[in-house]
Amino acid sequence: MGNRSRAIRRQPTEKARISIDPRRRKPGDTQMSDLEELRTTLASTPDWDSLNAYEMTKRCCAELTKRGQRLPSWMNIRDIIGKGSANDINRGKEDFRREHGDALRKMSGFVKGVPEALAPHILGFWTAAISLVREEFDGQVAEWQAQIERAEAAVAHAEDERDRAVSRAEALQGQIAGLQEAMNTLQGRVDTERAAREQAERMFESNRQELAGQRDELRAALAHSQQELSDAITRLEGVEKHSLLEIDRARTEAQNKIASIEAKAKRESTDYTLEMARVNNQLRDLRAQLASATQQTALQEQENTSMRERLQRAEGQADHLASENARLVAALQEAIAAQRPALRGKSPVIKKRRTPR
After folding, report:
1. 23: which DSSP letter?
2. Measured between alpha carbons, how far is 149 from 142 in angstroms, rounded to an integer?
3. Is 292 a domain residue?
4. Does residue 1 sit within a domain?
5. Count of CB atoms within 10 A of residue 58's CB?
6. Residue range of the domain that includes 79
7. Which long-range contacts (CB under 8 A, 24 or more apart) does 113-117 make?
8. pLDDT tens digit at each of 357 positions of the chain
């Protein structure tokens, strides 16, 4: 519990920081002035430095009550008196409230030296005065709280603006650095381009001089070529005349050859016609012979068919005769078998006739 109290004392609330931090107040702030005045008043009381936290708390609560102010939290009281634990400060607050309540209850009776008829009126005046002061103080507290909230909003807005300004400044600084780097790069490119341009100008001058020399050489070569062309044209004209003569001679020879070839072709065409007539005659003869052979073949086929029929009939007769011969042989064998006992063991010799086919 003691460690937790010390941790709480080391971390005052935002409200307490707002009430005592002079950096969060504008110059001439009334609440800050009252707080400093309260500290000065308490420090000027007898034996203040020798009091413990409990006694300082009770004296602070008494002074705040005299001023018509509410009793703050134990952390705010600790910020005012400068020391004390939560237990000591809360115990001092509770004891002060109880003692103050007892004092108020005593005031509701007869006050020594005050007539009985005036005591209720004086008590009413005192109660009304306390209520009026409390209402006025509550109004001031509400106004102070509104001022605090407006100030906090203004501070928050200012901090936001500051953060945005810092962000913009950092962004602009980055842009400046980037632009500086880009400028350095462009400057390097400009230097490179300048050197390249100077080199190109030198090369252009050298090329121009070289081209001028080549132009002179080309002009001389052109004049020489024109002279050679003129000579070649003269030679070409002579060659052309000779070529025309040769062409006429070749044309005449070609015409003669064509006439000879046409005559030869005509003769060969006549021979071909005669040969075709002879071949056609032979073809007609062969066709006639083929027709005759075809007719003979048909007659021969008819004769063959007739011979096949006769052969089939002869084979049928031969089969019939063979069956009759077999039947007769069987009958003969039966007759011989029947006469064998009478022949005494002698078997007659029977000559088998050959059946004509």
Report:
1. G
2. 10
3. no
4. yes
5. 21
6. 1-107
7. none
8. 444 444 334 343 333 333 334 344 444 445 667 788 888 888 998 889 899 999 999 999 998 988 888 888 999 999 899 889 999 999 999 999 888 887 777 665 545 666 666 766 777 787 888 888 888 888 888 888 888 888 888 888 888 898 899 999 999 998 999 899 999 999 989 999 899 889 989 999 888 888 888 888 888 888 888 888 888 888 888 888 888 888 888 888 888 888 888 888 888 878 878 888 888 888 888 888 888 888 888 888 888 888 888 888 888 888 888 888 888 888 888 888 877 766 555 555 555 555 554
R_g of the chain computed on alpha carbons: 79
Does residue 60 form part of some domain? yes
Amino acid of residue 184: N
Distance, CA of 271 to CA of 277 (rounded, Å)? 10
Total domains in the fold of the chain: 1
Amino acid identity of residue 1, one-letter, is M
313 lies in a domain? no
Burial (CB count within 10 angstroms: exposed 0-12, middle 13-18, buried 19+), residue 125: exposed
| CA dihedral of 340, 341, 344, 349, whole degrees rounded to 10 | 0
DSSP state of 21: -
pTM, full prediction:
0.28
3-class DSSP state of 60: helix
What SS3 class is residue 139?
helix
Q: How many residues does the chain have?
A: 357
Nearest CA to 19 out of 100, 75, 65, 98 is that of 75
